[in-house]
Amino acid sequence: MSGEVTAAVGERGIVRVVLRHEGRLNAMSRAMWRQLRSVFEDIQRSADARCVLIEGEGGAFCAGGDISEYPAFRFDPAQLRDFHENDVWGGLAAMLACDVPIVARIAGACMGAGVEIASCCDIRVAAATARFGAPIAKLGFPMAPREARLVAGAVGALTARQMLLEAATFGAHDMLARGFLSRVVEPDLLDADTQGTALRIAALAPGAARLNKQTLRALGPGDGAALGLADPYAYADSAEHREGIAAFLAKRSPIF
Fold this sequence. Notes:
Layout: E1 4-9, E2 14-20, H1 30-45, E3 51-56, H2 77-96, E4 102-106, E5 109-111, H3 113-119, E6 123-127, E7 131-133, H4 145-155, H5 157-166, E8 169-171, H6 172-177, E9 183-185, H7 190-202, H8 206-219, H9 239-249
Parallel strand pairs: 2-3, 3-4, 4-6, 5-7, 6-9
Antiparallel strand pairs: 1-2, 7-8
InterPro entries: ClpP/crotonase-like_dom_sf, Enoyl-CoA_hyd/isom_CS, Enoyl-CoA_hydra/iso, Enoyl-CoA_hydra_C
Organism: Paenacidovorax monticola
Protein name: Enoyl-CoA hydratase/isomerase family protein
């Protein structure tokens, strides 16, 4: 089995995305990267999705790439390019282009590909026992350029250098202090915390959330900087804009 990435829509439009690769700590296979792209392209097209909660099955988020597949393609430059530029970046780019807020529930190992996937999320919550790194120097290869830029932008340049040059790994509290994580909670509180976060996001105006993500992407570095916003005030007459203002003036909770 080469693993799978699944998506299921739950209450309030929360889409639960699960990385699943039994016996490999949810390491990403080529098939899983392609599925990740398809899943997030579907979420982007969905008018009902309000928040994505992404997690790994069992006790790990994602331990990296599926190294058992590597001898089949990594030693040929053309095949290696295809893997990174199409399979891997295809999945990551679909996450980065998703206008629906993404919450990462991180437990256990979050290494290499796991850090890359987490770097695409808007809010990252980790169990206190989670571990982070990208020790691929031990495997004799560097991180692909666009992936390295993504990770460095999320974890910080110094942390990225330690991960890639030292093969250093870090605990959750250290990554919180370095600005990568939103919160660190005890393992038995991780489910309740991330589900509560997703519910709070889902209860807010979904159109505003999508516009905020578009704005932040346009203002940020890298590929998104050139996108811009065609008309940032086109929401003026939207139903949720009118509802939000009307509810505030009426001193009631808005219904989005």
